[in-house]
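Support request, please re-run this one:
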Amino acid sequence: NLRGPDVDECLRELRAITNQAAVDAPDASLLEAAAANQGNEEAWRLVCDKAYQVLHDPSRHWRDAPIEWRRAYAVAAYYRASLLDDVGEAVRQADLGLMLGDTRHRSQLLALIEALDPEPDQYAGPAWRTPMPNPCARSVSSSKDILRLATPSMSTFREQCFDVSTPAILEGVIEHWPALQKWSDLGYLNHVAGRRLVPVELGRHYLDEKWSEQLMPLSSFLREYVQKGDSQAYLAQHALLDQIPRLRRDIASHDYCGLGEGDVTQNAWIGYGTISPLHRDKSHNLLAQVVGAKYVRLYAPDQSEKLYPVADGVHKGVSSQIELDAFSPTNPYKRREALRKFPLFETASYIDLILLQGEVLYIPPGWWHYVEALEYSCSVSSWWGRAE
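Re-run finished. Output below.
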């Protein structure tokens, strides 16, 4: 009884950008054929393949592809998923439609996934074993303590943090989130969302030469990487809560995001011992630590010259060339080379901290931050607004 996307509307848009009105237009003919044979799974697969090829043109990022092709992929993904016999493959195809398509058909894809993979009964365990914390965890070394505020009012947060670009740890502001208890058990995440397809970063971090990204079911990520304590796999900066509404129910939005303008973007971070290298964002950020603990090091914007920002490429100006471990006294040869290459780095002033479960870190726009999970960790970032 589900109502699918409007194929004719998608076809009109696709023809418009190809400047070909003929029924047999090369780029529109596949969609035309599928529209005429809506019960043919193979016809929709061909449309998915063609749209995927356009979206993954190596000359650009897939998000920069024509919106018409993103919509075409979402439409084709919906109809193909509805015709597949294998539920796991059908959910995978619909999830790809959510991730690669635009937002126009999001509600229809979500409804289809709910029909294909109904919400299970309430989770009753048994709890999954999680790996032990890292025994070589980092310790705080800065002489300056970070500001701490206990359940600050909106006016206090504005005056002491938002208006003066000052980072702070906010205590007691997410204690009501069910995720603090539920997400601590990997078995719960697997129970409610194990079939769902997620993008996993493989490698030490995104600046590593061996870094790659792989799509896999959430259950595979949890069993094969997180549960085994593999720090080389990270479900990082993903719109998991938009993709899986069952998990969104476990968290809430922050009232503090009402300060300033712009939409709020919430992304999830899940992994064991993972690293986000030194970088900065243009938006305000509330980093909520839902499970586990993280080491965080912060540098103010006026320290940028000493942090050697990447000079070119997609990470130009927003990521640093610095590898913190290269300056460790435990490896004097590596440290000597790092000091020769980046002589100003150790003169930069910083604040570091351990962000504990249930705490929220406010990171103002432009502040550099390095983040390392000390154990199994789940975090939710809320970005909004931009520095004026």
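Residues 67-83 form the longest helix (17 residues). Residues 20-26 have pLDDT under 50 and may be disordered.
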